[in-house]
């Protein structure tokens, strides 16, 4: 018994030195793991916000984007969390009363204040970009356009957000940022995948943007935009046709029709039975058509429909000029365009119209699409109205024209064939965010897409923590083993007599 007591007394595990070493070892490991966990843990999920106002020709829309705060300047997902459609027309329609343009935005701005957390208001950038409506107003009356921007700027300055300015986007920017948006949302840029072309149809202009193997920008530098994104170089072909948005083309077609038969216009692009009295002055109140106003025209004309797709298409073709191409190939109006290549996303009015007509399925042969549209256009106006009592009458009256214009623009204008037509996807949103130029615009202005691919950590966070823990435990075990000479079983065994 006394020998056992003696052994216990001599048990080196119970000496103060080993106890202190063990405690220090455990504290060191706990500290190491804690620091590793805290140092590299994603910060408490805080979000940043950005707001873009799309001041289009037909209306203004506000978009709020959100992204995790620590993913600034990284491949982190920027998502659209909210959108608000401003009531009333586009800001260019307020040329004669600019203050109203500013006031029109207040409802959506109030909504934005509720959607963005209050503590983020001050640091949230707010941009307004205007497109073809303001481009046209600027051509027509630049001081009126300045006054609209002045009024809109004053209104936005009063918001709690960080207002970064209001300006007109060039057609090139509008096309290029639409392309960036589509490819960013599809993760094609960060992963260096084959890109998708972008087709945007607005009220006053239309944009086409795509990457072509045969395009290096040398033949037509005005159509070239170069980017370096996530370590990849892109040479984008882009063109914006001012006056080729669907509202302006409708004016162009009507202007053609009113050249002959003043006072009465029988329009193949409208349904039979449709009849409206319209003002010449309203029709010709746009720089796209103002030079065509017939002299001695009466104040009004009767616009009646006769629902004939083929004849409508003939009328629409007249708005394109296919002569005088000084390049190797052109789309129309002497504008250079390489052959369309790769998949395309077609958004805004492309989607609104084709979705209404149930024609978003592009695997349907183009000939069948035309047959369907022929039948739709031939449907009398009263039947159309009965079938769609809830659709805005202005839109409803124009779907036959708009569908015909879209098919003509794609096939005759941009040279999509029966085969390449199926490469087009009519889209509204991608992963919850609207397709359009606004997201690309904000990503660019906030430097959110790096030129070079960001360094990715060797291990994901969880893997890193596990790795540090295992190594720390291993070191501890090795340390304990290194103390082996001090272990009781290894020290001189007391003799039990
Ligand atoms: O790009 P710009 O040319 O400046 O014009 P916008 O931005 O105002 O143009 P949108 O894409 O908002 O709309 C394009 C057109 O589609 C029309 N539109 C909007 N919603 C529609 C719907 O549900 N059905 C049919 N047309 C619609 C709208 O009036 C325009 O003529
Ligand atoms: Ca637009």
| Mean pLDDT, all residues | 91
| CATH C-level category of the domain at 246-320 and 361-426 | Alpha Beta
Overall structural class, as computed from helix and strand content, comes to: alpha/beta
Strand order of the largest sheet: 8-9-7-6-13-14
* Tertiary shape: elongated
Helix content: 25-40%
Indicate the radius of gyration in whole angstroms: 33 Å
So, the CATH homologous superfamily of the domain at 246-320 and 361-426? Exopolyphosphatase. Domain 2
Number of H/I helices: 16
Biggest β-sheet, characterized? 6 strands, mixed
Low-confidence stretches: none
Alpha-carbon distance between the two ends:
10 Å
CATH architecture of the domain at 246-320 and 361-426: 2-Layer Sandwich
Ligands and ions found: inosine 5'-triphosphate, calcium ion
CATH topology-level name of the domain at 246-320 and 361-426:
Nucleotidyltransferase, domain 5
β-strand percent reads 15-25%
Total number of strands: 16
Cofactor: Ca(2+); Mg(2+)
Membrane topology: Multi-pass membrane protein
Subunit structure: Homodimer; disulfide-linked.
Binding site for ATP: 203-207
């Amino acid at each position: 018994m006394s020998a056992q007591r003696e052994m216990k007394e001599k048990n080196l595990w119970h000496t103060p030195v080993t106890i202190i070493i063990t405690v220090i070892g455990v504290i060191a490991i706990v500290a190491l793991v804690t620091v590793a966990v805290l140092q590299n843990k994603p910060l408490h999920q805080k979000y940043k916000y950005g707001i873009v106002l799309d001041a289009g020709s037909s209306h203004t829309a506000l978009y709020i984007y959100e992204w995790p705060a620590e993913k600034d300047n990284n491949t982190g997902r920027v998502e659209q969390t909210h959108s608000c459609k401003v009531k009333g027309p586009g800001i260019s329609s307020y040329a004669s009363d600019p203050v109203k343009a500013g006031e029109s935005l207040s409802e959506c701005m109030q909504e934005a204040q509720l959607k963005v957390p209050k503590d983020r208001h001050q640091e949230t950038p707010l941009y307004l970009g205007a497109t073809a409506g303001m481009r046209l107003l600027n051509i027509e009356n630049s001081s009126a356009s300045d006054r609209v921007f002045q009024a809109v700027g004053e209104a936005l300055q009063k918001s709690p957000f960080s207002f970064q300015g209001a300006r007109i986007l060039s057609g090139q920017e509008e096309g290029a940022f639409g392309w960036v948006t589509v490819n960013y949302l599809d993760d094609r840029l960060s992963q260096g995948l084959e890109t998708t072309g972008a087709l945007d149809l607005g009220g006053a202009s239309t944009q086409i943007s795509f990457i072509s193997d045969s395009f290096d920008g040398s033949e037509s530098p005005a159509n070239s935009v170069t980017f370096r994104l996530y370590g990849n170089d892109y040479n984008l072909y882009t063109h914006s046709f001012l006056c080729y948005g669907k509202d302006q083309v409708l004016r162009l077609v009507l202007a053609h029709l009113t050249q002959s038969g003043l006072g009465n216009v029988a329009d193949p692009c409208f349904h039979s039975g449709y009849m409206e009295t319209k003002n010449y002055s309203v029709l010709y109140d746009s720089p796209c058509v103002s030079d065509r106003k017939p002299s001695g025209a009466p104040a009004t004309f009767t616009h009646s429909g006769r629902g004939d797709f083929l004849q409508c298409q003939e009328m629409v073709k007249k708005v394109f000029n296919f002569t005088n191409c000084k390049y190797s190939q052109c789309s129309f109006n002497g504008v250079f365009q390489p052959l369309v290549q790769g998949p395309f996303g077609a958004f805004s009015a492309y989607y609104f119209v084709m979705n209404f007509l149930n024609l978003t399925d592009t695997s349907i042969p183009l000939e069948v699409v035309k047959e369907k549209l022929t039948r739709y256009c031939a449907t009398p106006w009263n039947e159309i109205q009965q079938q769609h009592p809830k659709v805005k009458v202005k839109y409803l009256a124009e779907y036959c024209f708009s569908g015909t214009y879209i098919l003509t623009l794609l096939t005759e204008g941009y040279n999509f064939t029966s085969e390449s037509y199926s490469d087009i996807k009519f889209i509204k949103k991608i992963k919850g965010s609207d397709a359009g130029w606004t997201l690309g615009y904000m990503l660019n202005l906030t430097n959110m897409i790096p030129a070079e691919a960001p360094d990715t950590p060797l291990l994901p966070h969880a893997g890193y923590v596990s790795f540090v823990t295992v190594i720390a435990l291993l070191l501890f075990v090795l340390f304990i083993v290194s103390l082996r000479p001090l272990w009781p079983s290894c020290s001189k065994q007391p003799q039990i007599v």
